[in-house]
Specification:
By secondary structure, the protein is of the alpha+beta class. The protein is built from six helices and 18 strands. Helix content is 20%, strand content 40%.
Length: 270
């Protein structure tokens, strides 16, 4: 049986907006090289590969140039596919085994809410010299977690007007750079953008995993545990965030959004 591959726009209810991901349904594991070639062929910010495992699924994510350890929008897309294809009943929890540990997703009406580990930042005492030149803007706060740099800018206008120098950003020893500011709109608590040229994605349209950092960061600054963020890319997307606790000091972030299928097909293997 040929593997199904389904393209989903995540963090949106409207086709051709939000963040596109391909979801490949496998009956058994495939080797890393094959998955990387499929991801390069799809040429989307992320391609997810789902294989049945135990009471859930093994989930791996590949950008066009490399595998990644955590991806929110492709997890959202994967959960959406499992319910839409009838692989899971709508009241079942989607359970994923990943490189970042166990992840879960459940349906809440039209919203899909994912349970992810918090990835809070720590202050960078001396920011990389090329960071300011890469972004072309005066930096405010700079922090980092195990994946990314986090930069707060002075205003939403500054954030939206950024024209990064991706050839410089690519040289930074991180997965990507999150830029953020308070929102000018009462509809959102904060806005953000995300750049990851080293992974073959100059600007990611909507980045769920970045909100594992953005959620704790803005929750502390604003004194709130439920927030709404807007990722101000060209396609744009809305991300809902709730801070939680997995027990025994395990900080969790609930990341919510909608998803819509735009394309279904099969991989024609020879």
């Amino acid at each position: 049986m040929l593997p199904k591959i389904i393209q989903v726009d995540a963090f949106t209810s409207e086709p051709f907006s939000g963040n596109p991901a391909a979801v490949c349904l496998l009956e058994e594991p495939r080797d890393d090289g094959w998955m990387q070639k499929v991801a390069a062929e799809m040429n989307l910010p992320e391609t997810a590969f789902l294989t049945p495992e135990g009471d859930g699924f093994r989930l791996r994510w590949f950008a066009p140039k490399a595998e990644v350890d955590l991806c929110g929008h492709a997890t959202l897309a994967s959960a959406h596919v499992l319910w839409e294809e009838g692989i899971l009943a709508e009241d079942e929890i989607a359970r994923f085994a990943t490189k970042s540990g166990p992840l879960f997703a459940e349906k809440r009406g039209e919203l899909i809410e994912m349970d992810f580990p918090a990835e809070p930042e720590r202050t960078v005492e001396c920011s990389p010299p090329m960071l300011e030149a890469s972004l072309g803007a005066r930096l405010g706060y700079v922090g980092e977690n195990r994946f990314d740099l986090l930069v707060e800018l002075e205003s939403e206008e500054t954030l939206r007007m950024l024209r990064p120098r991706f050839e410089l950003l690519k040289k930074l020893p991180v997965r990507g750079v999150i830029v953020t500011s308070r929102s000018d709109s009462p509809d959102y608590d904060f806005v953000s953008r995300f750049f990851a040229p080293a992974l073959g994605v100059d600007e990611d349209p909507v980045t769920g995993s970045a909100h594992c950092c953005l959620g704790p960061y803005w929750a502390e600054k604003l004194g709130k545990t439920e927030l709404v963020g807007y990722q101000a890319s060209e396609r744009g997307g809305v991300v809902r965030v709730r801070l939680g606790d997995g027990g025994e000091g395990d900080r969790r972030v609930k990341i919510g959004g909608e998803a819509v299928t735009v394309l279904k097909g099969e991989l024609m293997e020879r």
